[in-house]
């Protein structure tokens, strides 16, 4: 078990500071605007919350009208749900892939951390990654492979650990 709260709190902080004029801006996620990315964040937070609770998920289809309140609340619910020992037991499905619940928590960590960086970068904000999250992210790549989202972006061997993670996800850590 590990606690998702540090990364969900950091992403919630970033979400609350997104400006209306940022919604149409591009993101490091090719083909997604900031509004698309916010919708995806809300969706995955709902799915991972439902998975932790072993309930059917009902992710929102569009960006919620009150997204600055709803997305942070959903992220907090996700972190809370994964603090329950039962969340880590059994098997769940995410993105059409069935997996052990503990691996699903690792996917939740990766999605929250990497898309947190995406959103922060696209909106000119910082994104602090807790050391315990960085320590766990290599487990995601052990489960899903070295470049689960397409070709990796080469980064120097002496790059900071999070830059190496971003490169493995196909992101350029210098994206602006």
Kindly list the characteristics that best describe this protein:
176 residues, mainly alpha, Four Helix Bundle (Hemerythrin (Met), subunit A), two-stranded antiparallel ribbon, 6 helices, CHP03086, MDMPI_metal-binding, metal ion binding
Descriptive overview:
The chain has one domain: Four Helix Bundle (Hemerythrin (Met), subunit A), CATH 1.20.120. It contains six helices and two strands. The protein has helices at 5-16, 34-53, 67-81, 101-122, 131-144, 161-168; strands spanning 91-94, 97-100. A hairpin with a 2-residue loop joins strand 1 (91-94) and strand 2. Helix 2 packs antiparallel against helix 4 (101-122). One of its GO terms (molecular function) is metal ion binding.
Kindly summarize this structure in a few lines.
The chain has six helices and two strands, in the order αααββααα.
């Amino acid at each position: 078990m590990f606690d998702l709260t540090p990364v969900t709190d950091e992403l919630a902080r970033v979400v609350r500071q997104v400006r209306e004029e940022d919604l149409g801006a591009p993101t490091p996620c090719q083909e997604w605007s900031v509004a698309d990315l916010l919708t995806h964040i809300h969706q995955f937070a709902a799915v991972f919350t439902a998975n932790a609770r072993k309930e059917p998920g009902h992710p929102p289809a569009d960006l919620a009208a009150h997204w600055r309140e709803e997305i942070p609340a959903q992220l907090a619910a996700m972190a809370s749900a994964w603090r329950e020992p039962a969340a880590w037991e059994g098997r769940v499905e995410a993105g059409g892939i069935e997996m052990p619940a503990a691996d699903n928590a690792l996917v939740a960590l990766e999605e929250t951390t990497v898309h947190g960086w995406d959103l922060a970068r696209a909106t000119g904000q910082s994104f602090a990654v807790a050391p315990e999250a960085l320590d766990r992210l290599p487990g995601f790549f052990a489960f899903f492979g070295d470049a689960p989202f397409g070709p990796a972006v080469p980064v120097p061997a002496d790059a900071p650990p999070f830059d190496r993670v971003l490169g493995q996800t196909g992101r350029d850590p210098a994206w602006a």
